[in-house]
Amino acid sequence: MLPHIQKILYATDLSEPAKHALGYALSVAKQYQADLMLLHVIPDWAKNVTLASGLDFATIYDENTWLKIKDDVLRTSMKHARERIASTYKTYKYELEESGIATSVHVLTGHPVNTILQFAKEADLVIMGTYGHSKLGSLFAGSVAQGVISRSHTPVMVIPLQKDGTAPPAVKNNLRD
């Protein structure tokens, strides 16, 4: 029995491989008349900077100043991420509207793998992109993709993009069939 796909999660880090994977996500959504959730997760930069530097910025700045800096940077990051998603999505907007595919855009902050997995619980398929740098490299997905693949209970489709911006030959040949 063929799977019934009603909702697809397209996870993007706004990279070139992710943009390449969007075409696949839209194609699959159109084929199945499935709803499409577009998700971008902004890593918790404040936590990452604090861990990487060994500094506790909350003690360097007074608490109110630190919270304002965090909030301002997060708000700006989310705004830019939404704009970049909208710009990429605009290319396909007419086609989506014509086919009647319902879409939603989500920009959140947190741990990318955990957040994607949380959204994946609501989906029938997860689609994301990754770089395929070499024959050996194509055996392994990026760290976020690998984390999602290894922990997801929802099927995951990972679309590779080579360093030169092209799809691997095997993918190109499959598209012709």
UniProtKB/TrEMBL annotation:
Entry superkingdom: Bacteria
Keywords per UniProt: ATP-binding, Nucleotide-binding
Pfam hit, one: Usp
Domain UspA: 5-160
Record-level Gene Ontology MF annotations: ATP binding
Family statement: Belongs to the universal stress protein A family.
Protein's UniProt name: UspA domain-containing protein
Species whose genome carries this gene: Halodesulfovibrio spirochaetisodalis
